[in-house]
Amino acid sequence: MRRSILIPALSLVGLFACNSSGSGDKTASTDTATAKPAAPAADTMHHHMDSTGAVAPVPDIPAGAKVFFKNLKDGATVKSPLKIEMGASGIKVDSAGMLRPGSGHHHILIDAGDSLTAGTVVPKDSTHLHFGNAQTSTEIKLTPGKHRLTLQFADGIHRSYGGKLSSSITVNVKQ
Ligand SMILES: [Cu+2]
């Protein structure tokens, strides 16, 4: 398993090294210039390119895949802090950083709209939470009253899979 992740990671490092130093040599793994991009870098700042140099499109959604709030129903009355279990079926929950078809990671949008158009990079702020370590549960603090929560799945480089892989509920947080 680790191996299959490592190999594409290394080939990407080679790609970046090519751009910066012109040396895509695989023996350059001890080179400090090629070692740097191996860090969690490959996040939102780097485009993942295919062999033609174009940014790869958002991967197709596997047939029947869906995401859902496991432990919460629409309209539920809840307490803060609120534990949220994020469910996914038909698609793999994986860590962020690399584009891998058939996988992605969860995001929670708090009072920030129902879903993000497919291909849109999910913002990173207090109302758009990323779970790029493949987390499937979290705890959030909410002020009393009604809140709209959206679970939004996105690909390895944080691009939304769109409404098909999202789910929205309203919760009523009691004082
Ligand atoms: Cu993300």
Describe this structure as you would to a colleague:
There is one protein chain. The protein is α+β, with helices and mostly antiparallel strands. It folds into two domains: about 1-40, no CATH class; about 65-175, Immunoglobulins (Immunoglobulin-like, Sandwich), CATH 2.60.40.10. It is about 15% helix and about 30% strand. The strands form two sheets. Strands 2, 4, 5, 6, 8 and 9 form a six-stranded mixed β-sheet that branches. The longest helix is centred in the first third of the chain and has 20 residues, at about 1-20. The relative contact order is 0.20. Bound molecules: copper (II) ion.
Principal-axes shape call: elongated
Strand content: 25-35%
Q: What's the CATH superfamily of the largest domain, by name? A: Immunoglobulins
Ends apart, CA distance between termini? 46 Å
Based on the coordinates given, report the CATH architecture of the largest domain: Sandwich
Question: What's the total count of β strands?
Answer: 9
- Mean pLDDT level: 81
- Sheet/helix structural class: alpha+beta
Summed up, the domain count is 2
Question: In oligomeric terms, what are we looking at?
Answer: single chain
The CATH topology of the largest domain is Immunoglobulin-like
